[in-house]
Amino acid sequence: KWKKRYFVLCKPSGSLPGQYELNYFSDEQCTRKKGTIDLEECEQIIESLDSDQFPYLLAIKTVCRGKERTYFLATATEEDMAKWVSNLCSVCGLKQEES
Asked: Which SUPFAM superfamilies match (predicted)?
């Protein structure tokens, strides 16, 4: 079941250089925080996934305490997807693959 969420890429206060997290919220004003993705645990960013329901779908694969988890994010435009992938790869220290 898909749930609409709003994401904010941020650097937690007091964090070390290069540490980022992706907070997600249930409302567009970002007042009701639902959770956090620790990008230190990010293993892979996958863009342009095949989906009949969402044309601009990407995935964030993480491993935390030996447990794999994949988060799926859908954007409104291809440009938005490319920006998210580029920024996430940059803060996660991953090399973006050529399309």
From this structure: PH domain-like
